[in-house]
Amino acid sequence: MRRAVLLALAAAACGATVDLAPPEGVAADDPRVAACRAEAEATPERREIARRAAPGIDAEQRTRREIERAVVTAYHACLQRAGFARVGGVEAVQPPLSRWWSPGAPPALPDAGRVPLAPPAPTGY
Question: For every residue of the chain, which 3-state class applies, written as one string?
Answer without folding.
Answer: CHHHHHHHHHHHHHCCCCCCCCCCCCCCCCHHHHHHHHHHHCCHHHHHHHHCCCCCHHHHHHHHHHHHHHHHHHHHHHHHHCCCCCCCCCCCCCCCCCCCCCCCCCCCCCCCCCCCCCCCCCCCC
